[in-house]
Specification:
The complex is a heterodimer of chains A (490) and B (171). Chain A has 490 residues and is of the alpha+beta class. Chain A contains eight helices and 26 strands. The radius of gyration of chain A is 26 Å and the shape is globular. Chain B has one domain. Chain B is built from six helices and no strands. Classes of the chains: A alpha+beta (490), B mainly alpha (171).
Chain lengths: 490, 171
């Protein structure tokens, strides 16, 4: 082949490779990654460097070992407070029922009304069990996962074919039965911009079906499932619709939980009844209680996913204890999908979050550490002087400052806009529920939290520098059914 | 291909892995002033090889780098192939084995390679322009120290044990 032809061939190959690099996930990209899988064994050549532990590694390991018990205690306390938010506050609702703590771990964009929840694998959760948050009804268990222990699909009350028996109590004391389920159309808005905005801000309305008394137009709507005489708990899932009203013992556990306020409004000239929901089912809550008969479940919920349960962590060695990619904070981990390492899984050392798995191959995985620009994680804050932890949403890493503190972008959408001076509160940041691959309760670090609405850069300091560590723990997103532990945490 | 050359390719892979691991170990404290030793070896060697060996160098360098780094294989392959081709072109115009040129080119190409990977990472991670500029600025110390290493150790790296079958007398 002539020189000019070979140059042309090189340039053509280069163009193809550039395309594969810019557009990940293409067939070519997949082939290249597969072809490089055996390179994991070349990493063994670097093993002697793992023996050369630097003083910073020893310092980080001893710091984390010393602080681990205190950190575990703080984390468990925080999780217990979060989990307690899922329990009913009304003593009447707490009586005669058991509650199993569960956390939402996945919201599917294509099936927004079905979410995946996780709970302790040994918990007595059954199909059709009602699910609640505080005093509010959320939905019912649709199916238990066949592959993963302690995991189920929850069908929200907003799902189109969902039906739950309910009762409205009017301000004058009158009561009437109705059926609730699915989402009702929003009230009609006028041509006026303000009316349109008011309609959009009105919140979520649940659809009302077959109201018994149309003269009642307002009042609190609570679940009132009909107990069919002689009905036994069914092992099979009802097909939906009114069949679920005869769900029996399990369904009646939800009686008394709130659905919202009954309202009547106009939709394109037609007057309809609806229930103004008191929860934003699309975005919250993450902490839930699955109801069970009192004799089966404890009155207080155990932790759905204990971040300190030994069986949930995989010990993995880093190929080299340092930056293998200049400009990044990332590691090649010598464990892969064959060991249970899944993309997105949390990396932790001694209860401190140090990073997350980015991609995972059969024998190795790439992980980005918390200081890697673009690293993302859902976070909750334990505020100084406040009992209740506060969900902050997603933090996105910018890197590190000159003092090696982590920098994160955070959008505060909760606090009021700044009236003048910026208030701030010291806070400990922990991982929040809502992600399958990251357990809640891992320490991210300490920061000072601005208490004003807007975009902020948080400066987070960690007890130990995760960059120095050569061995990490990787979170197992789920325990396969055959591995289901028979006893509690070792 | 002779057995000697086969062994030389394998030895090159081992040297690249070790140098890569060494630079990672040196940077474990978070220092930005760590040279890209493996890349300096590649550049030193490419300045002395026959053009037909260029794909082999790229292949071995990609495998060695993929063993330890987290960057996608396609990004590594594209970056290394691009830089090797650029160097093959440049060595016809400049004396890349001379101290000043080799230091200059090593520094510039290390920066270009790391910037390529950082740019891809920023693109895929959705990093804004301000953090990306910070990342680019952080690459300068590594490029500078790589240039110094190339100046001081470039010929020595190209003459590491086991690599002589890959070097050409013409260059």
């Amino acid at each position: 082949m002539s020189s000019s032809r070979s140059r042309l061939a090189y340039v053509a190959v280069l163009c193809v490779l550039v395309f594969a690099a810019v557009e990940p996930g293409t067939l070519l990209d997949v082939w290249i990654e597969r072809a490089l899988v055996p390179s994991r064994f070349a990493a063994e050549l670097a093993r002697p460097f793992g023996w050369l532990e630097s003083s910073s590694v020893r310092a980080a390991e001893s710091t984390l070992a010393a602080e681990a018990p205190a950190l575990a205690a703080t984390s468990r306390e925080l999780l217990a407070r979060q989990a307690a938010g899922a329990l009913p506050r009304d003593p009447e609702l707490a009586r005669g029922r058991g509650a199993v703590h569960a956390q939402v771990v996945e919201r599917k964009t294509q099936r927004a009304d079905c979410v995946t929840i996780q709970f302790a694998p040994e918990a007595p959760v059954e199909v059709d069990a009602p699910v609640t948050h505080g005093d509010h009804y959320v939905g019912r268990i649709d199916a238990l996962s066949r592959e993963r222990a302690g995991e189920a699909t929850l069908r929200l009350v907003t799902e189109k074919s969902f039906r739950v028996g309910a009762e409205v109590e009017a301000p004058d004391g009158r009561k009437a039965a109705l059926v609730v389920g699915g989402v009702a159309p929003r009230p009609s808005h006028g041509a006026d911009e303000d009316e349109r905005r008011a309609s959009a801000d009105a919140g979520l309305f649940l659809a009302v079906h077959a109201p018994q008394d149309r003269s009642i137009t307002s009042g609190v709507v609570r679940v009132r499932e009909i107990e069919a005489p002689g009905s036994a708990r069914s092992a099979s899932r009802p097909s939906g619709g009114l069949a679920s009203l005869a769900g029996g013992e399990l369904a009646s556990l939800a009686n008394g939980f709130r659905l919202g306020e009954l309202v009547r409004y106009d939709v394109d000239g037609v007057v309809i009844f609806a229930v103004r929901a008191e929860l934003d089912y699309g975005a919250e809550p993450y902490e839930l209680a699955v109801l069970a008969p009192a004799e089966q479940a404890e009155a207080g919920p155990p932790l759905a996913r204990d971040p300190f349960a030994v069986e949930r962590w995989i010990r993995a060695r880093c190929a080299v204890p340092g930056e293998a990619s200049i400009g990044r904070e990332a590691r090649r981990i010598l464990a892969g999908t064959r060991d249970g390492v899944e993309p997105g899984a949390a990396l932790c050392v001694g209860g401190q979050l140090v990073g997350r798995v980015e991609t995972s191959g059969p024998w190795s995985a790439s992980a980005r550490l918390a200081g890697d620009p673009g690293f993302r994680v859902q976070v909750a804050a334990a505020l100084a002087g406040s009992d209740a932890p506060r969900a902050l949403g997603e933090l996105v890493a910018l890197g590190r400052d000159d003092d090696d503190a982590l920098l994160f972008v955070w959008r505060n959408a909760i606090d009021p806009p700044p009236p003048g001076a910026v208030a701030a509160t010291p806070a400990e940041l922990f991982t929040a529920p809502g992600e399958r691959s990251v357990p809640a309760g891992l320490l991210l670090g300490s920061t000072v939290l601005p208490r004003t609405r807007g975009l902020h850069v948080l400066r987070v300091t960690q007890p130990a520098d995760g960059r120095a560590l050569g061995v990490v723990q990787v979170w197992r997103a789920a325990i396969a059914r055959e591995e289901e532990p028979e006893e509690d945490e070792p | 291909m002779s057995a000697q050359r086969w062994i030389a390719w394998i030895v090159l892979g081992a040297w690249l892995v070790w140098l890569h691991a060494l630079q990672a170990w040196l940077g474990s404290g978070g220092s930005a002033w760590v040279p890209d030793l493996a890349l300096v070896l590649v550049f030193s060697l490419v300045a002395r090889i026959e053009p037909k060996d260029a794909p082999g160098i790229v292949l071995v360098a990609v495998v060695a780098r993929a063993a330890l780094a987290v960057d996608p294989g396609a990004a590594l392959a594209a970056g290394l192939l691009g830089l090797v081709l650029l160097e093959l072109l440049a060595r016809g115009l400049f004396e890349l084995t001379a101290p000043a040129w080799r230091a200059l080119f090593a520094g510039a190409l290390v920066f270009a390679f790391d910037a390529w990977l950082a740019g891809l990472h920023a693109l895929h991670a959705g990093i804004g322009p301000v953090p990306f500029v910070r990342v680019l600025a952080a690459l300068v110390p590594a490029a500078f120290t790589s240039a110094i290493v190339s100046l001081a150790l470039g010929p020595a790296l190209a003459h590491l044990p086991g690599l002589s079958p890959l070097r050409s007398r013409r260059w």
